[in-house]
Every structure is written in C-alpha cells, then in structure tokens.
Amino acid sequence: MRRAGGRRHTLRDIAAALNLSVNTVSRALSGKDGIGEKTRALVRAEAERVGYVPNSMARSLVTGSAMTFGLVITNPSNPFYAQLISSIELRARAHDYSLLLTVTDESAENEARAAESLLRSSVSGAIVVPVQASADPWRRLGAVGVPTVLLNRDLPDLGYRFVGTDNELGGYRATAHAISRGARSIVVLEEDLPITTIADRIAGYRRAMTEAGLAMPRGSIIRVPTRRHDQAALPWQPQQAYQVARRMLRRARLPDAVVVGNDYFALGLYRALAEHGLKVPDDLMVIGFGDHPFSAFLSPSLTTVRLPAEEVGEIAADLLLEEIAGGRSARPLKQLIAPTLVERDSTAGASRAERRGQAGDASPA
Amino acid sequence: MRRAGGRRHTLRDIAAALNLSVNTVSRALSGKDGIGEKTRALVRAEAERVGYVPNSMARSLVTGSAMTFGLVITNPSNPFYAQLISSIELRARAHDYSLLLTVTDESAENEARAAESLLRSSVSGAIVVPVQASADPWRRLGAVGVPTVLLNRDLPDLGYRFVGTDNELGGYRATAHAISRGARSIVVLEEDLPITTIADRIAGYRRAMTEAGLAMPRGSIIRVPTRRHDQAALPWQPQQAYQVARRMLRRARLPDAVVVGNDYFALGLYRALAEHGLKVPDDLMVIGFGDHPFSAFLSPSLTTVRLPAEEVGEIAADLLLEEIAGGRSARPLKQLIAPTLVERDSTAGASRAERRGQAGDASPA
DNA sequence: CCGTCCAGCATGAACGTTAATGTCCGAGCA
DNA sequence: TGCTCGGACATTAACGTTCATGCTGGACGG
C-alpha cells in the first residue's frame, strides 16, 4: 500500500504500473470524458489497490484554488463563536472546502499576521470576525482578489459582504421588554471593548429608553474590564462582572433592571445581588444576551436575547460560496439577522417596579 | 501593488524586474547565504514594493511539508474543546504552523472523511480527538508517515502518542470527595457515549466506592441520552439531564450524592432537585466535571473537577512538534494530566449524609 | 480504396517554489 | 604568469497535478 521510503503514490506510479500516461490516469480518476470505460476501471482499480491519495497542493498550484476557507475568529471559548465554527465548518465541508482556523484574541497584531497567512495559503475565501482596530489587513486580502465575508462585526469602509446579528435590535428588545415589565431606571452592563456589536446594543438600549421617555443619567452604561492573558483566549469572566456589579450596588439608587452584554455577566450580577440580599426579579430584573446553554437553568432562569448563531454561520458560508462562484447574488450586501427575546423568570412576575407603577396609577402621567 | 489580471506577483516577476535569476531572488528572500548584501537589499526592496507574498502551496509542493496541523475535534461547543482549540492554535502559530480544523460531531463517517482530507492536504501532522468507533482512519494516516497525536481519547492499538486528562483519577477524586463528606450511596450521571473518557470516569468512581467498601447497586450508573441533529454540533443539553434526573428522583431511595459527567448535567440536576424541594448540599450533594466558567457562579456554587485544558493542548502541540522534528523525545508515549477537584458549596457544610453519619457514630462500623 | 472523423490515448507545458549543479570572474598565491 | 579557490550568481531539474494540444488507428461514407 505504501511506496518505499514513506513516499506516497502519485499519478506517475499508477501510470507506470499500467503503461499509461500520467494525463490518462488523471482524467480517469477525476471522471472526465475521453477515457475508455475499460481503461478507467483499470485505473480506478490500481489506484484503489495502492491506496492512492491525490496531492491537493499540487492540484491547487495548477488550478489556483486551494478549496479552503480561512476562518478568523476572536475567541472560540465564546459560545456564540463556537457555534459559528461548527456551523461554518459543516457548510464548508459539504461543499468540499477545508477550514483554516485562526484565533486573534482581539489582537490587531494577530489579525494582521492572520491575513498575511491566509494570503500565503491562497485560500479560496475568508470569513472574518474583525478586531475592528484597522481595516487594512482585510483590505489587502480583497485587493489581491480573495473574496472576504465579514462576520458579526462590520467594517463598512471596505464594502465587503457582511452578515451578523442585529445587535441594535437585540439591545432594543431587551430594554423594551424591561420597560414593558415596569422598569423605569435601567442600567447596562457591557464589556469594555471598542467593537460595533457592543456599541449597537447600547444604541438599541438608548432608542428604547428614548422612545419610552425615560432618563439615562450618567452611570447608566457600566463597563466591565476585559481580562486578557498572554496565553490562549479566555472565556468571559463572570468574576469581572461580579466586581463591577458590587460597586454598582453600593450606589444610592438601585435601578429597576440591568441589561447585561452577555449571559456570563448575568452570572456575576446574580451573585452580587444575592450577596446584597436582593431578589431577582422582585427587587431587580436581569436581561441577558446570548442565551448560552446554561441560562435557561439558572435560578431564576434568565430572560435573554437569543442569537441566531447557526443561521448567521450558514449565511456567511453561503455568501462566501456565492462570491467565490463569482455570480453576483440577489442577496443584500449587508445582512442583519434579528435576535429573539426569550422571556424567563428573571423578568417574570410582579416586580418591584411593576408594583410601584400600580401604586402610582392614580397620579397623572 | 497588484499585477494585471488579479494575479499575484511571483519570484519570477521580481527576478525579471531586477535582471536576476529566480533562484537568486528566492535565496535572497529566504535569508540563505551565497547572496551579496547589495543584491539582497535590492531584492527585498523590490519584493516590498510590489507586495510580494510567497505561495505556500508551491513551497510545500517542493519541500514536502505544508506547515499545517490538522486538528480534528468532535465538538467546539464543548468548552473543554474550545479551550483546546485556542491553546493548540496559539502553539501552532508560534511555530509558524497553520491549523486545519475539522469537526466530527462524534460521527465515524465524518472522521473517516476527515482523515482522508488531511491526507490529501499533506498536513505536517495531526492532533485528533477520535470518535473511538474505529482506529482505521488514523492508522492509515500514520502508515503514510503523518505524525499523529491522540488527544483526550486514546486508541491504544495504534501506539501513537497520547495526551489527555486522567479521567479515572477525576472520577475517583470526585467520588472520594463525596465519600469524605459523608456520602454513602452515590450515583453517577453520565452521557451515553461509547468513549473511554466516560468509561474511565466510571472506573474511578468504582474504585473510590470499592475502597470505601460502599455498595454500587443496580442503577448506580445512570445514562443521559445524547441528543444530536443533522446540523452543526450542539452544546451539552442540561434538559436531557433534567429529565433523567426527574426519573431518578421518583425512585424509592434517594442517594446522598450525585457525580455528574459534566457541569451542564449538574444544571439539569439542580433544577430537578429544586422542583422536588430538595436542597443542595443539605439533602443531596452534587459534584460536576469540567469546571465550566459558569459553575463557580451557580447557587449553590458547584464543586467540580477542573480539567487542565490549556496544559493538555500545549502538550499535544509540543508532542506533535517533536514528532515532526523526528527527534525521539524523552517524554512518555502516553501522558495523563491530573485534574484537580475544586471544592465549592454543592458539597459544603453539614450535609444530610454527614449528620446521619454523626448520628450513627455509636454503632459499630 | 481513400479520405475524414473521432474516440482514446500520449506529449509537452505550466503552476511557483526550492534544491542541486554549473559557470564566471576576481583575488590570492607560488 | 598561471593556477587554484571560492564568492556570487545562473541554469536546470524537480515536486505532482491539470490543461492544451498532438498523435494514432479504426469505423465509416463516398
């Protein structure tokens, strides 16, 4: 089954064994016509016998396409990105593409090196969650003709195809839901990163508050510092949110609800609240973001915004496939998928805010 | 910066522009000697000017090495594997290797295709979490000389290098801890998969029980069915464990402690217990496995076995690097990293079992 | 019987790089 | 002066495919 010296069998080996030309063997195996059925069967049998495996690098060198997607992700430990990886890998594999994965961990330097590496590898296309520090690495990729789809975070300057979650809508729905439950003062707990997803969620929060005529005093947007270390990318740290939440709870006036940027932060908040003797949702409502697998099973179960990870991943892969095929698709250049609010116990029942609202029914608007 | 027709610049372009031979340009850029300093500077400047990017497929074709790791994982949504991906990618990148990722989702067919794909791509080596249905795909990979390291699940027949968690020890420590807290009847809740990691954990459980002289009646090992769908790989489902736990709680005699196979299952168990009006740890202790980021923040916080994900990933990468380098390393062929028990509230305080134990102090052993 | 045509295969070149030799020329030395 | 030696580059081949084109023989029609 194996040639001496550990070398693999090549088309030439098969050709020599059958007294055929290399080209004939190639065409026979790749199913092209112009080959007699008898010869084709012979070639296939010999290839099977010696365990022939085509060398895709040699093939790629001449065809120009490596049949590979580059996938650039900031952090696989983020459950949303983990699902995206699964979803995209599945779609890619279904179309005979391999996946070249790079983790940037929110580092612009890693990102630049990733783009360079994709360029070297002659990937057929790239799906990128950009760090959003600079658009240059991906501009370069597009300039040499590598189709690139931006995922979850857009870089509008580039004019590339983009698919992501409608974070603005998510932030809006989360906030509007809290308001509909009677919350009047609402606070946002978000990670401290300069990315559009977070900015969009905050924009959605502001829109909901403004529409409801509610005030957003200073300190309504609370930032949770991002912990990083020089090793592999970390999952979100509830601990960081816990500490920030503790500081928040020392403030004079307690908000009616807290909208957090991800469900891990809700965990930290839960603990801080419990330590302060505060009940969710009675004393304070909590709305999460991401609907991570644990969120339905917290006590109280967490109302949260569910992200369409699978759909976003599939669309990203499809967009890239279309772009590679070259056919201009009928799809919009930018695509935002709406997240859905999952109502659970952390905003259920008659909350303090709702009771207060009822008590004040007699008073004018 | 770009050649007409979207084609990239090649060594030949630079050679033509400078009236040099292709080889000279190649050697100048790759830093080999035998090139005058003046010429080298000239070549470098020209390469920089036109934005030259080497074609790694052409290079790989002639060198025989693609400078690529194949990483075969069952499910990125498993936080342990997500961390492994990060860790391995980081290590690979540090040594100028790219990562070709395949997701098998516990499917033997996917696994066979993955091995075939790695073979085609001429990866320099592979790190594999095998499905453990058949060793053949990976046997084939090794047979053609691709160094392969098994990760987390061994295939002893192959005699490949292996690094993973010591699951037997993990199961032992979890169980022994429960016993030390006074538990006498202990039940295991494990996923229904035919893999060694689970079998090992159960073996550790049995050893601890046997050492303590405790009985393991029928029904001590409870299996949670694995939900699968034909789409992307799913995270663990607490819901499945919840349903199994409900059935368990209807049984006549309640165990003192439950050792669960992963922290997500503990979530489902928590809910089932709460619905039955049972308190953790007072009525029943719970010990998890994995120390997922949420586990410290549950209420009560979850005692669990922390897995050395980062260390395992790094060792796997290092093993592969050594194997690729060819130098027989001093490391053992098989390497098991010990997990550590993280004691938290789900086994804290004076439990029902402990109180009962104290009440029975007078009675003989 | 000869020319045509086409199926079936062979030949040669190309993809972009690295590796193994070849060639030239100037410096150094007897 | 003639010879050697070695630095600096050129030339050629090779990696394993695919693509474009060339060749051959037999079937077929006039």
Mean pLDDT of chain A: 91
The biggest beta sheet of chain A is recorded as:
6 strands, parallel
Distance between the termini of chain A: 85 Å
| Rg of chain A, Cα atoms, Å | 27 Å
The H-and-E topology of chain A, N to C, reads as HHHHEHEHEHEEHEHEHEHEEHEEH
For the secondary structure, the number of strands of chain A is 12
Note poorly predicted spans of chain A: 1-5, 359-365
Give the overall shape of chain A. Answer: elongated
Order of strands side by side in the largest beta sheet of chain A?
2-1-3-4-5-11
Helix content of chain A: 40-55%
Q: SS-based structural class of chain A?
A: alpha/beta
What's the helix count of chain A?
Answer: 13
Portion in beta strands of chain A: 15-25%
Task: Please provide a written account of the structure.
Two copies of one chain form a homodimer. Chain A has helices at residues 11-18, 22-29, 37-50, 56-63, 79-94, 108-120, 136-143, 167-180, 196-211, 238-249, 263-275, 309-325, 352-359, and strands at residues 68-73, 98-103, 125-128, 148-151, 161-165, 186-191, 221-224, 257-260, 285-290, 303-306, 334-337, 340-342. By secondary structure, chain A is α/β, with parallel strands linked by helices. In chain A, strands 2-1-3-4-5-11 form a six-stranded parallel sheet, with helices on both faces. In chain A, helix 1 (11-18) crosses helix 2, helix 6 runs parallel beside helix 7 and helix 10 (238-249) crosses helix 11. The longest helix of chain A is centred in the C-terminal third of the chain and has 17 residues, at 309-325. Chain A is elongated, with a radius of gyration of 27 Å. The first copy, chain A, starts with 10 loop residues before the first helix and ends in a 6-residue tail after the last helix. Mean pLDDT of chain A is 91; it is low at 1-5 and 359-365. Chains A and B meet through helix 4, helix 5, strand 2, helix 6 and helix 10 of A and helix 4, helix 5, strand 2, helix 6 and helix 10 of B. Chain A binds a DNA duplex (30 and 30 nucleotides) through helix 2 and helix 4.
